[in-house]
Write a structure and sequence with these properties.
This protein has about 80 residues and is mainly alpha-helical. The chain is built from four helices and no strands. It is about 55% helix and about 0% strand. The longest helix is centred in the middle third of the chain and has 15 residues. It comes from Streptomyces showdoensis.
Length: about 80
């Protein structure tokens, strides 16, 4: 079973948003909220769709909405992968 890494998630988000690296200042980007990183809801919806296809998981809207940071979204996807195994 392939686990999602935060680095891979950030690659997917950048591809979906069509943007370069987010500016996180001196903080780690995986701990900042998506809005603070400059990602809007459209980029996140595209990211969710891509994650569902690539990792064969079903991201429920309510659970997905609770994942406010890349670290939280990575943990959610990996939990779903573990449950499906």
């Amino acid at each position: 079973m392939t686990q999602l890494t935060t680095d891979r998630l950030m690659e997917i988000i950048r591809e979906c948003a069509g943007e370069g690296d987010p500016v996180a200042g001196d903080r780690s980007p995986e701990e900042l909220e998506f809005t603070a990183l400059g990602y809007d809801s459209l980029a996140l919806l595209e990211t969710a769709s891509r994650l569902e296809r690539e990792f064969q998981v079903s991201l429920e809207e309510e659970e997905f909405g609770l994942a406010k940071t890349p670290a939280q979204l990575t943990a959610l996807v990996n939990r779903l992968l573990t449950e499906a195994a």
